[in-house]
Design brief:
Length: 718
């Protein structure tokens, strides 16, 4: 832990900080310099403790009473108060964004702002000489030395000021350099930042300039809105970008004024791009057409209209070119431009599972149920994703690497995107089914602690580029900190071990496909974790999320006796020992029979028998190596049956009932082995049917047919 620990917030009055000892100004600045130097030298991994939860303030700035540093009490929130401060140091990013601040009495203190998007530089966020207000501030001990830190856990409790707001103490307001009062100066700061692709800094500078504009600065205001629109869009704040783009449209102008027409065409285009990025294709189309009326041959607007048509088609029909998407997706370009396809699903009450996702029409096995782009995702390969980790004082849970970055990103983006905040905070947080999000002083009241609970219950690990066999089996993590994200609609899908749907990924797009036929108005389930042949292990993992699975498979597993469970585990141990010595089929066949005997046929009729899968697969492998084609076919079909597929077949035709089947990577292997066994026996027709079956299993599991032939090469069944 490099820099911080937090204590529970006490509520009893412990006296004002006038009575506490703190380093003087020189000491504090010196210590801060030392900290910066140490950080530059060591490039540390950054970890912090989250304190016991406390809520964000819900009060507007102007309703709060000013307080100064001497008035803050350690470990007590100054309810009903606001502190006005000026930053007097170049900020640094440790676990928090840290700097030194000064109040209107010239007293200095440390400041730590937690949970700020990691793509924002500390100095972009809080440059020296920035005026800020902290609503209902909290002073906590500084653990890495003597003294205290003003700590902000909810970024919305911090307000960046332009200096022109009412209530700012005179001494702070007049200490701003004269030039910073000029809107034009901040416009230039914004333009330079935009040129350097510092979009957060650019948007902040334009905001500052806008606050400093007078009534006469009409044209300047339009320029600033137009510039801020694109900075916000590139920073990912689309709602704000849309509002800015619309505000940048100059209302009154002559028909002959070509320059203004061009500016308005640009404003409409930017608003259109923001609406497009929000998935509001109707509004995006209107805005693009407005732009084209003013600037007929704008390539950008024409291209956007073309893209809108493609997205609408995807949205209405689920008609995506997944193979091409998968080919084009790579580590540098894994946030893709595609629409959501949600036409077949609806969130509804789901009994004792809370809310769930239901079909609005019948879906066939293998069909795409829905396709959704992440609300927010952090890939393990994102430069920001690895450094930070959080320990939660209350729950003792750890949040590592991309998970921490996801929290910071959601909190920063949701504060300025009320739609996103509403979607995110409507998700299950471990206690409640979402809560409405207030807007105060123009930003959404984002509760960091609640956000963390929502992430714990809803975030989903994902591959960095696309689902491949290795990624699905969990072998792909380069860093040990897997990529993770939030998909809004998919978050309503409840778990079942023997689920009727499963997920796959291409970049930040998640596809959910039906594993078996699903009728209209049925609940969709996905396995949160792969089932273990020892059901107590599965239930133990699910218990972390606060529930026990009651699917038909778990129900059957519950009726397995302790003796049967012990016998099953014995067979597994023997199998392991056998694998390290010899792989003779009589011994494996024997083990298979012993394991099969632990399954009660009445209870497990047609249900998957998890304890048989690895032995069944090994038998296929052994018969394949021996060139025993009839035995290979029999073992492969048995493996499919052990996966819960009911198979009727003669020498020419197969019929597969998937009603109880399990989603598993054993399934395409089994079908492929069967196809090969039949091919070797000269039964091409049935071989081709098993080949097609293998392909359909593969697409359900991995999203596309890519990788299927490599696997066949590995199995030597091409
Ligand atoms: C991602 S949310 C799913 C949507 C959630 N049911 C809701 O109302 O928003 C995960 C939570 O749903 C509940 N859940 C999911 N699957 C369940 C199941 N099979 N049985 C009981 N509760 C389940 C658990 O509370 C779990 O922590």
């Amino acid at each position: 832990m490099d820099d911080d620990q937090s204590l529970p917030i006490r509520t009893k009055d412990e006296g004002t900080s006038k009575n506490i000892s703190r380093p003087n100004r020189t000491q504090l600045l010196f210590e801060f310099d030392m900290q910066r130097e140490a950080q530059n030298r060591e490039n540390p991994k950054l970890a912090h403790f989250l304190p016991f939860p406390y809520p964000p303030t819900k009060h507007p700035l102007q309703s709060l009473d000013p307080i100064n540093i001497a008035g803050l009490k350690p470990d007590i929130i100054s309810n009903g108060c606001v502190i006005y401060l000026k930053t007097v140091e170049t900020a640094l990013r440790a676990a928090a964004i840290q700097t030194i601040v000064e109040d209107d009495e010239g007293i200095v203190e440390r400041l730590a702002i937690y949970n700020v998007d990691l793509s924002i530089d500390a100095n972009e966020f809080l440059p020296e000489n920035t005026l800020i207000a902290i609503k209902e501030p909290l002073l906590t001990p500084f653990p890495a030395g003597s003294g205290y830190t003003i700590r902000v856990d909810h970024p919305c409790d911090l307000v960046l000021l332009s200096g022109s707001e009412k209530g700012i103490p005179q001494s702070l307001a007049i200490s701003q350099p004269e030039e910073t009062k000029l809107a034009l100066y901040w416009k230039e700061v914004g333009n330079t930042a935009y040129g350097a692709r510092k979009f957060f800094k650019a948007a902040s500078a334009y905001s500052r300039a806008l606050k400093l504009c007078t009534e006469n600065d009409t044209n300047l205001k339009y320029d600033l809105f137009r510039n801020r629109a694109i900075a916000n869009i590139y920073f990912g704040r689309f709602r704000q970008g849309l509002e800015d783009g619309k505000a940048a449209v100059i209302q009154a102008f002559e028909d002959t004024d070509e320059a203004t027409k061009e500016l308005n065409a640009k404003a409409y285009r930017r608003a259109g791009l923001a609406a497009y990025s929000l998935g509001d294709y109707d509004q995006a189309e209107i805005l693009c057409k407005n732009s084209l009326e003013l600037s007929h041959d704008s390539k950008e607007a024409l291209q956007m209209i073309e893209n809108i048509e493609k997205r609408r088609k995807e949205q209405a029909t689920g008609d995506y070119d997944f193979e091409q998407m998968s080919r084009l997706c790579n580590v540098k370009r894994n946030r893709l431009d595609h629409a959501n396809y949600l036409a077949n699903v609806e969130v509804r009450p789901a009994g004792n599972h809370g809310r769930g996702l239901f079909t609005t029409r019948a879906i066939s096995a293998g069909e795409l149920i829905l396709c959704e782009k992440a609300l927010c995702v952090i890939f393990e390969t994102d430069p920001i994703s690895q450094k930070h980790s959080i320990l939660h004082t209350q729950t003792q849970r750890k949040t590592l690497g991309p998970q921490s970055a996801l929290l910071y990103s959601i909190c920063s983006k949701a504060a300025l995107d009320v739609d996103m905040a509403a979607k995110f905070f409507n998700l299950y947080d471990g206690e409640t089914n979402g809560s409405p999000v207030g807007v105060v002083d123009g930003v959404a009241v984002v509760d960091t602690f609640k956000a963390l609970s929502i992430l714990f219950h809803n975030a989903i690990g994902c591959p960095t580029v696309a689902s491949t066999m290795k990624e699905v089996q969990g072998q792909s993590m380069r860093t040990g900190f897997p990529s993770t994200g939030i998909w809004e609609t998919i978050s309503y899908i409840n778990h079942a071990c023997n689920a009727n749907a499963t997920r796959s990924f291409i970049g930040d797009i998640m596809m959910v496909r039906a594993v078996r036929d699903i009728k209209e108005d049925q609940e969709i389930y996905m396995p949160y974790v792969g089932p273990n042949s020892d059901n107590t292990i599965t239930q133990g993992v699910l218990q972390n999320w606060g529930f026990k699975c009651d699917c038909e498979l778990c129900d059957a597993e519950k009726r397995t006796t302790a003796l049967q469970r012990k016998q099953r585990n014995d067979v597994h141990d023997r199998l392991k020992a056998l694998l390290s010595n010899e792989r003779t089929h009589p011994r494996v066949e024997q083990l298979y029979k012993r394991q099969k005997a632990t399954y009660d046929d009445k209870i497990f009729k047609n249900l998957p028998r998890l304890g048989l899968l690895s032995i069944g697969w090994l038998l296929c492998h052994i018969h394949h190596e021996a060139g025993a084609w009839t035995k290979l076919v029999a073992a492969a079909v048995t493996l499919l049956q052990d996966l819960g597929y009911s198979i009727k077949m003669d020498d020419r035709i197969i019929e597969v009932d998937r009603q109880h089947c399990l989603v598993s990577y054993y399934a395409p292997d089994a079908a492929r082995y069967a196809a090969y066994g039949y091919k070797k026996q000269g039964k091409a027709k049935i071989a081709s049917q098993f080949h097609d079956l293998a392909k359909s299993f593969w697409v359900v599991l991995y999203g596309t047919a890519r990788g299927m032939d490599e696997r066949a090469k590995e199995l030597r069944v091409l």
